[in-house]
Design goal:
By secondary structure, the protein is α/β, with parallel strands linked by helices. Helices cover 38% and strands 19% of the residues. It has 9 helices and 12 strands. The protein has helices at 4-18, 50-65, 82-91, 111-117, 145-166, 170-177, 202-205, 223-229, 244-249, and strands at 37-42, 70-77, 100-109, 121-124, 129-131, 185-187, 190-192, 199-201, 208-209, 212-213, 218-219, 237-238. Strands 1, 2, 3, 4, 5, 8, 11 and 12 form an 8-stranded mixed beta sheet that branches. The protein has a two-stranded antiparallel ribbon with strand order 6-7.
Amino acid sequence: MRFLLPFLFSLLFVHAEEEPEKRLIGKSDEISLTDKVVVIPIGQKDLINKQAFRFWNRTIDRAVEEKARGIVIELDTPGGLAFDTREIVTDKFAKLEMPLISWVKEEALSAGALIAFSTDRIYMAEGTTIGSAGLINGTGQEIEKVTRAKLESAFEASFRPVVKKKGHRLDVLQAMMFVDEDNERTFGSVTVRKGGLLNLTASEAVEMDQGKPLLAAGIANSLDEVLKAEKLEGAEIIRPEPTGFESFAW
């Protein structure tokens, strides 16, 4: 037995030397993002999954390191974790120098709307909606008044510089996030009732208001149309996949 154990260890060592890349747990097999358009889908349940945020953070870091041409966030979400969303917006999206585009494929509600506001330009497919970004607790119930005021103030402070940098209208985001019990609010052809939150359809979001589109840069019914509008047509598209361990954790 004392001769067998060293022999086994020597075999393991030789095998590891022959295939060192496999010790990187699958990451060495990932396709390079260099000069590609990276598409990050955010689906119905993704924004309630902390592992999704970890994967997106790693993907964004890779896109920057490997010099991707740009990132498109493909949105079809009713919302999710507010604090995790704020963190990825302020830590990653707000600091990106490459083009960061959002495409509302189906809906971008709640935290999905916050993500859209953190991108350079927003495109929406016909019939889609964006808005209803008011804060609620984990059970969906109303938050106590003082606590709500504190949270809303903190979130607004976090998003103000991001919205300004990206060139979107802060008052539009505020109308999606905050209820006004006393006044109606009007944005283009849309009036928000007292006590309501703003939601915009695609056709409403592209209406001209104060000399510029209310929110969205244009209507796009496919990813190809988004890329054409951004002068990225012909670019290779890649949708990064989680590694085996990331998929298991997901």
